[in-house]
């Protein structure tokens, strides 16, 4: 599949892998692909996201909410995270809970595989390219692929970015680029 | 979250998005607490067998999970 990727789309994937590694994520998820789109600012996806007023800082904030621990979610179970953290630090030292590898994401280095939602997004990106009659997979198709399902989609939809509208925008911009 | 009835209502939320997210949060916390305790046990010279017994899992399971952490 990657042989049909444009240079920019490949760069997005490379960035996604680096972002996943920096965050010590065991897998490359759709959220890392989404952040990867912002890392290639001259790509069509980044243009579209900026036109739709979605910026990287907002997306990062959305994604990091609840990480590594979700105080609000735990509170709904009657668990006071602050108290748990305090107890852990009392026994094991300052920052004990947050320093655990479980809190920071587990495996470091080496090859990071794609998570199912990211793999699916790449496949759907290919399908979007075919559907639009484009013979290549660009960053814009990756963005469309991400808008079907998964965490990236949830974040984008919550920010008012939907599949249909974005698809129309991609068509318009690609037509313009070909004309210009 | 001091009101017990309020907590109970949230914990048994019928909204799957709330309930599932809460369970996921709990799992995250559990993983960290387990790691702290396993690390501490190893530092105190506990064998994997002893740790597994206390955690009520198989020795293989706990060893496989934490071996890579170097603890």
Which secondary structure elements does this structure contain, and how are they paired or packed?
The complex is a heterodimer of chains A (180) and B (71).
Chain A: H1 7-22, H2 30-38, H3 44-51, H4 56-64, H5 71-75, H6 81-92, H7 96-99, H8 101-104, H9 116-131, H10 139-146, H11 150-158, H12 163-179
Helix pairs in contact in A: 1-2, 2-9, 2-10, 2-11, 3-10, 9-10
Chain B: H1 4-11, H2 16-43, H3 48-55, H4 59-67
Could you characterize what this model shows?
The complex is a heterodimer of chains A (180) and B (71). Chain A is mostly helical and 180 residues long. Chain A contains twelve helices and no strands. In chain A, helix 1 (7-22) packs across helix 2 (30-38), helix 2 (30-38) crosses helix 11 (150-158) and helix 9 (116-131) crosses helix 10. Chain B is mainly alpha-helical. Chain B has one domain (3-69). Helix content of chain B is 75%, strand content 0%. Chain B contains four helices and no strands. Chain B has helices at 4-11, 16-43, 48-55, 59-67. Chain B starts with a helix and ends with a helix. At the A-B interface, helix 5, helix 6 and helix 8 of A face helix 1 and helix 2 of B.
Tally of strands of chain B: 0
Head-to-tail CA distance between termini of chain B: 36 Å
| Poorly predicted regions of chain A | none
Rounded average pLDDT of chain B: 81
Strand content of chain B: under 5%
Q: What is the 3D form of chain B?
A: elongated
Q: Average the pLDDT over all residues of chain A and give the rounded result.
A: 88
Name the quaternary structure. Answer: heterodimer
Largest sheet of chain A: none
Our count of helices of chain A gives 12
* Domain count of chain B: 1
Alpha carbon gap, first and last residue of chain A = 28 Å
As residue ranges, the low-confidence spans of chain B are 1-8
């Amino acid at each position: 599949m990657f042989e049909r990727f444009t240079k920019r789309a490949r760069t997005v994937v490379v960035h996604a892998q680096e972002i996943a590694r920096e965050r010590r994520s065991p897998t490359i998820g759709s959220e890392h692909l989404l952040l990867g789109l912002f890392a290639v600012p001259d790509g069509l996806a980044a243009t579209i996201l900026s036109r739709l007023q979605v910026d990287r800082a907002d997306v990062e904030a959305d994604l990091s909410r609840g990480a590594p621990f979700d105080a609000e979610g735990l509170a709904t179970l009657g668990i006071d995270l602050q108290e748990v953290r305090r107890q852990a630090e009392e026994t094991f030292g300052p920052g004990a809970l947050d320093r655990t590898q479980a809190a920071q994401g587990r495996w470091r280095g080496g090859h990071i595989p794609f998570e199912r939602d990211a793999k699916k997004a790449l496949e759907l990106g290919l399908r979007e390219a075919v559907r639009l009659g484009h013979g290549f997979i660009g960053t814009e198709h990756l963005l469309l692929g991400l808008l079907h399902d998964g965490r990236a989609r949830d974040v984008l939809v919550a920010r008012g970015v939907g599949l249909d509208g974005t698809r129309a925008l991609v068509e318009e911009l690609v037509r313009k680029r070909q004309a210009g | 979250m001091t009101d017990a009835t309020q907590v109970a209502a949230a914990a048994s939320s019928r909204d799957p998005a709330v309930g599932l997210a809460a369970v996921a949060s709990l799992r995250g916390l559990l993983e960290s607490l387990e790691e702290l305790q396993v690390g501490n046990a190893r530092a105190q010279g506990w064998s994997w067998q002893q740790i597994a017994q206390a955690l009520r899992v198989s020795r293989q399971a706990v060893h496989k999970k934490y071996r890579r952490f170097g603890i």
